[in-house]
Structure formats: structure tokens, C-alpha cells
Design brief:
alpha/beta, Jelly Rolls, five-stranded parallel sheet, globular, binds 2'-deoxycytidine-5'-monophosphate
Length: about 375
């Protein structure tokens, strides 16, 4: 089944976490990530190296419009095919970007390149005008925001205990100045699209923000998961041979023992082959389709699966949801998923912590009725 590509466009002020969040959203969903700011940075490096008169707006536009700016497979930005590495993020470049960002001729060319990069593809992109100019028809638009104080706190925390680190107040004042410039330039000004979701991230972990955005994306396009195929099968209470025990627990009163496990891909379940499981013969926990990044669980009681739940997942992460009991299911020894490793989960310590539970709840909220 072919569908329109799903574009997730994210704008917001500097320091709101757009880049980290958008990159991870794209990675989790297996779609293209486009960092539009890197292109403004690359153009600025070019101007600098070519010795263009920084006060000649026409010469700047003429130079930038001749440039090809693209990305290599590692995400490094290329100027006329040459990788610029981390040089694009140096303070002297950052201080000069406004010469490109405020120049209508430069913006027109960069927007053309950006639209060409995402055309016809599922993609997540971030910038200042991603929702308003580059992709005004994006399937999901998010305005990612945080108060200047929160953004300053995050930035100062990155510096750690350095003696000459500026104060939160100083950084917040700089951030306000940059917001002012981003929001008030004549072209490509940062503004919230009327149909963008306003996501204020003060006090939220990056994981919770990422989960929220993925949940919104899947809500808008449930079939974002349409490429899901049964390359892994997760079952509850399975007594099938070949299944690996990964967790056990109890939900009923009096507590009854149960086990959860999964089977690995087998020649009978090849990529591209879809297997639908209404429920597994073992009982209460029913079948799952997943492609390392999506799971569909039919939860329910006894032999009556009730609620189909699709969870966009990190690669190789499985959650099993049962009322009152929260477990992360991790792979057999040696192949524990990256998420489990990052969160300190091991096979013998699989209780979800509060943060992970919040993330799971966010995913689940997509499939639960809206509060009226
Ligand atoms: O997101 P960033 O900090 O890498 O962006 C660098 C600069 O480029 C920033 O000052 C704003 C500008 N920019 C822009 O004007 N439009 C975009 N779509 C992305 C960035």
C-alpha cells in the first residue's frame, strides 16, 4: 500500500533540544533526519573561507546560491561535496550565521535544497522555518519550546563544574537575545505554525519528549508502522519450544506464576512475511508483530484479548504490558537491547523505573480514548 510520505517538522528556539530529539525520533522510526541549521552553518563556513565581503548582502546571496549543500551517510554536512565536520559549530561561525539566515536570497536557495532532500520520503526535520516554510504540509508539526531559564540550566549543566562557566542568568540573557533575533528577522522568522503542537519541555527528560512526539506521529499516521513484519514474535505464557524465558511475574489474586518470552526469527518467519496473531494459545497475553521498532500487543484477560496496542519501540526493545505489572522484556544474554543497557536493565532486574514507565504510558496514550 503506498501512502503519502510522513513528514515530522519541528521548530523552536535555540537550545530547546530540537536536534537531539528530532535525531532520535528519526532513528527510532527509521526515517530520514534533516538538520536544516547545519546547512546555514555550512554556507557560513563557505563565505568565511571564500573571503566574501561580510557586509555585501548581494555578494553573499550570489555566492551561497551557487553552493551545493548536502549530507553524507553519517550525517556530516558537505559543502560542494567536501565534509566540514564540527567546524560548523565553532563560535566564530555561529556568530556570523545571521548574515546567511537574514538574507532572503540565501534562504530561498537553502529552502529549495531542503525541500529536495525530503521530497517523497518519510523524514523528520528541524529548524526555525521547518513547519512554516520548508514543509507547511507536514503530517506532524511540533513547536518545541522551553523557558529561557530551563534552556540556560541545561546548557550550564553541560559545562559541568568549570570555573569560568557563565551563570544561568547570563546564559538566559544571551538566549533571550538570540530568540529576539530569530523571531524578528524579516525572512524565515521563527514562529509557531497555527497547527503546530506546542510542546513545552520544562522539567521533561529527552526520552519523554521523544516518546511524546513519536506517539503524536503514530496517532496521525497509525500506518507509520505499516512496514512492520513478523521478524520477532513475542508471546505470553507460551509453552512453545524454542521460546526464551525472559521475565516472570504475577498479576492475579492470588498471584499466579506466568512467564514471558520471545522466539527468534525462523525460516518460517522471514522479513516481509506478515503473521497475524489474534492471541497465542497460551492465554492472556496475545500476539505481537514487531520489526525491532514496533510491537502490537493484544492485551486482555484470560482468553479474551481486548485492546490492540501499537508501541513504537526502540530497536530490539520489547515491553509487555499487563495491568498492575510493568516489565521490560530484554533479549537473551549478550544481546540485551541498547535501551535496556542505557537504562541499566538486565535480565534479572527488569522492573521499569518511573521514567521508563512514563515513556511507555506516553506511547500507550495514543491508543487510549482522549479525555473529553
Ligand atoms: O539550529 P542551529 O543552532 O544549528 O541553527 C544555526 C542558525 O541558523 C541559527 O542562528 C538559526 C539559523 N537557522 C535558520 O535561520 N533557519 C533554519 N531552518 C535553521 C537554522
Amino acid at each position: 500500500m503506498s501512502q503519502n510520505p510522513m513528514i515530522i517538522a519541528i521548530d523552536g528556539p535555540a537550545g530547546a533540544g530540537k536536534s537531539t530529539v528530532t535525531r532520535q525520533v528519526a532513528k527510532t522510526l527509521g526515517i530520514l533526519f534533516l538538520d536544516t541549521g547545519a546547512m546555514y552553518r555550512a554556507a557560513t563556513v563557505g563565505l568565511y573561507d571564500a573571503g566574501i565581503n561580510p557586509d555585501d548582502a548581494e555578494a553573499i546571496a550570489a555566492y551561497v546560491c551557487e553552493r551545493d549543500i548536502s549530507f553524507d551517510s553519517t550525517g556530516q554536512v558537505l559543502l560542494d561535496g567536501v565534509g566540514l565536520g564540527e567546524r560548523i559549530r565553532t563560535p566564530e561561525i555561529t556568530a556570523e550565521i545571521w548574515r546567511v539566515a537574514n538574507n532572503p536570497g540565501c534562504r530561498g536557495h537553502l529552502v529549495d535544497l531542503q525541500q529536495a532532500i525530503v521530497r517523497g520520503r518519510d523524514a523528520a526535520l528541524e529548524g526555525r522555518d521547518a513547519t512554516t516554510v520548508i514543509c507547511p504540509n507536514a503530517g506532524l508539526k511540533v513547536y518545541l519550546d522551553a523557558s529561557p531559564e530551563e534552556r540556560a540550566r541545561r546548557r550550564v549543566a553541560e559545562w559541568g563544574d568549570m570555573d569560568d562557566a557563565p551563570s544561568i542568568e547570563q546564559v538566559a540573557a544571551d538566549i533571550r537575545k538570540r530568540d529576539e533575533s530569530d523571531m524578528n528577522r524579516e525572512v524565515g522568522a521563527l514562529q509557531q505554525a497555527p497547527d503546530a503542537v506546542h510542546c513545552i519541555t520544562d522539567g521533561m527528560s529527552p526520552q519523554a519528549v521523544i516518546a511524546k512526539i513519536i506517539a503524536w506521529a503514530v496517532k496521525r499516521r497509525p500506518l507509520l508502522l505499516d512496514s512492520v513484519y513478523a521478524d520477532q514474535l513475542l508471546v505470553g505464557r507460551s509453552r512453545e519450544p524454542g521460546y526464551v524465558k525472559v521475565a516472570q511475574g504475577s498479576v492475579s489474586n492470588p498471584p499466579a506464576p506466568w512467564q514471558l518470552g520471545f522466539t527468534n526469527p525462523t525460516p518460517q518467519r522471514l522479513p516481509g512475511q506478515v503473521t497475524h496473531y489474534a492471541r497465542n494459545a497460551g492465554g492472556r497475553q496475545a500476539g505481537v508483530l514487531c520489526q525491532g521498532r514496533a510491537v502490537i500487543v493484544l492485551a486482555g484477560t484470560e482468553d479474551t484479548p481486548t485492546l490492540p496496542i501499537a508501541l513504537p519501540m526502540l530497536p530490539q526493545t520489547w515491553y509487555v504490558i499487563e495491568e498492575g505489572v510493568w516489565h521490560a522484556v530484554v533479549q537473551e544474554s549478550g544481546t540485551i537491547c541498547a535501551w535496556a543497557e542505557a537504562s541499566g536493565l538486565t535480565e534479572d532486574a527488569y522492573e521499569l523505573d518511573d521514567c521508563a514507565r512514563e515513556v511507555v504510558n506516553t506511547y500507550l496514550s495514543v491508543y487510549q480514548p482522549e479525555d473529553s
